[in-house]
Amino acid sequence: MLKQGDSFKQVHQIRFTDEQVSSHRHNFSRSLVREAIRTGQMVISKDIKQDRRFTEIESIDQLPPSSVIAVPFRHVEEIYGTIYLERDAEMATFSEAAVNLIQQFVEIVGQAIYKSLRLEELECFRREHAHDFLETHDFQGIIGRSPAVVWLLKMAV
Questions:
Q1: Which of 28, 71, 74, 89 could bridge to 65 as Cys pair (CB 3.0-4.6 Å)?
Q2: What is the pTM of this model?
Q3: pLDDT for 73-85, tens place per residue?
Q4: Which residue range forms the structural domain that includes residue 64?
């Protein structure tokens, strides 16, 4: 899930199994994700249906028994997304080694995602304001033709 405006939207889903997935398996615990976003910390549940932190949440009843982890992507104090992982109850819960690997993954991949999101924002800003920039500034008198000046002017437009 990634931050889009003031909310978080699911942007991608990957299944690592060849089995047919029923429609209820496409659900996930948004409450667990919200808790990770609210606290800025990894949230782990060995069995989401039995976890006392989430017993009051009706949507948990719609989920099958599973071990889940939600980890926020963060940059300094800004939380800009989460990763949500789930394992069927028949499988073992996430091991300590797996949890450590997930934390390392989030730190490394999270940096790349953050940079990509910022670059996308800058590109949108440039597209929205390029015309206004050219309209408000007079470049008629510029005589510099060095590659650096030409490149700079092309980037501004």
A1: 89
A2: 0.66
A3: 988 888 888 898 8
A4: 2-94
